[in-house]
Amino acid sequence: MASHQDQSYKAGEPKGHAQEKTGQMADTMKDKAQAAKDKASEMAGSARDRTVESKDQTGSYVSDKAGAVKDKTCETAQAAKEKTGGAMQATKEKASEMGESAKETAVAGKEKTGGLMSSAAEQVKGMAQGATEAVKNTFGMAGADEEEKTTTTRVTRSSARTE
Prior knowledge:
Elements: H1 2-139, H2 144-149, H3 157-162
């Protein structure tokens, strides 16, 4: 029986070696799988960290650019407001100057017209008196004193203009 046990022992020996070898290979595979898992996890964490950092940088960049755009817009709006205010002031001043000029022109026109009207009134008055005297003389209604005083006065336009 000893030989049967030897045979059985010898038959079990390769089986044990195979099991041991399989166990070692399984352990090696487990170790490699765990190492690959750890490395993948580490890479994923690193990628996540880089993504978060990139997002923060991008957010900061976008925020900075948005702030710059906002500042530029405010500056442009302020400049437009100031320019409009200046244009309005210039328009007010020009309108005031034009109003003053129109007033001066109206006063000068009134004075000139008043002078012409006064001159024309004097001419009409003189002609009316001359016509009255002529009619009186024609009908013999003028007295002796009036006939001597009456002289025909002729007023011409050129003399009226020079007055």
